[in-house]
Design a protein that fits this description.
Low-confidence stretches: none
Radius of gyration: 14 Å
Largest sheet: 2 strands, antiparallel
Oligomer: single chain
Number of strands: 2
Structural class: mainly alpha
Distance between the termini: 31 Å
Order of helices and strands: HEEHH
Number of helices: 3
Helix content: 40-55%
Strand order of the largest sheet: 1-2
Shape: elongated
Mean pLDDT: 90
């Protein structure tokens, strides 16, 4: 996945609310456990794809990149150990 593709998708993930800053330290975005927000990410990316935002990258590759980016979201903060649900490691 190219840096541009990943950066663009990460922006959609943030704007859709699929991640949120760590409650404890705020240093990392953690999984928000929000299926509606994750669906919104796919919708936003689909709209951007239709507008040509990803250039020559095919639709299946873009969808795979979205899935991979969502899978990469931290569920536990690497700085303080706080879990996405606010519990400790």
């Amino acid at each position: 996945m190219t840096g541009f593709l990943r950066d663009t998708i990460d922006g959609f993930i943030s704007r859709a609310g699929a991640v949120r800053p760590c409650d404890e330290c705020g240093d990392y975005d953690l999984w928000a456990d929000d299926k509606e927000a994750e669906g919104k990410v796919y919708a936003m990316v689909t709209n951007a794809y239709k507008c040509g935002a990803f250039g020559t990258v095919d639709r299946a590759s873009v969808r795979k990149a979205v899935t991979a980016a969502l899978d990469d979201v931290h569920i536990c903060c690497p700085v303080c150990g706080r879990h996405f649900d606010g519990g400790d490691d």
